[in-house]
Every structure is written in C-alpha cells, then in structure tokens.
Amino acid sequence: MSQTITFDTHKFIKTLKEAGLSDELAEAHAEALKEAHASQSEDLATKGGLREMEARVIGEIRLVKWMLALVIAATVLPIVKNLFTP
Predict the structure, then answer these.
(1) CA distances to 9, 55, 61 from 67, in Å
(2) How far apart are CA 74 and CA 80, in angstroms?
(3) HSE on the CB side for 55, CA within 13 Å?
(4) Residue 30 phi/psi, 5° resolution?
(5) CB 41 within 8 A of CB 2
(6) Exposed, middle or buried by CB within 10 Å (0-12, 13-18, 19+), for 9?
C-alpha cells in the first residue's frame, strides 16, 4: 500500500534561500529530500494495513488453536476409551 507524504518544495527552497543558500543548491537539496521521502514512503505501514495484518494473524491463531484441540482430542480419546473398556 502506497502512502503519499506532502512536501512543500517551494517553501523548503524559500527557507534555504533565506538562510543564504544559492538557488541551485536550495533546489538540489529540495530534490534530494523529495526523492528520499518517495523511496522511504514505499516501506511505511499504514493503520489500515496494520489492522488487516492483525486480522489475518488473529485468524491464523484461531485456526492453530482448533487444530491443536483436534490433535489433543485425537490423542486423548483413545486413551480414555481404553481406560473404560474391559
């Protein structure tokens, strides 16, 4: 899932220029920061994505619990049956 990060390059460049950087250097910094944000935003988790993952994990855990219960029942029931049959 892709997440968009808003970045005001014009304001960023203006701030850098006011701090004494040249136009070319300010624009280069803005472009580099914009590219860094774009490459990192692909790896960000969203709340919705985390909720979906949580729901899947909970579903898997429930399935494993049922499977474990069936394995235990299949193991214990023959033992119990042998205890009560002559």
Answers:
(1) 55, 19, 10
(2) 11
(3) 6
(4) -65, -45
(5) yes
(6) middle
Question: Which pLDDT score, from 0 to 100, does residue 33 have?
Answer: 87
- Reported as a single tens digit per residue, the pLDDT across 37-54 is 777 777 778 899 899 999
Hunting for tokens 């968009």 — which residue is that?
Answer: 4
Cβ atoms of 27 and 68 within 8 Å: the answer is no
For the chain, what is the HEC assignment? CCCCCCCCHHHHHHHHHHCCCCHHHHHHHHHHHHHHHHHHHCCCCCHHHHHHHHHHHHHHHHHHHHHHHHHHHHHHHHHHHHHHCC
Over range 57-84, report the average pLDDT.
Answer: 95
pTM here is 0.51
**pLDDT of residue 20 exceeding 60:** yes
Which of 31, 41, 35 has the alpha carbon at shortest distance from 1?
A: 41
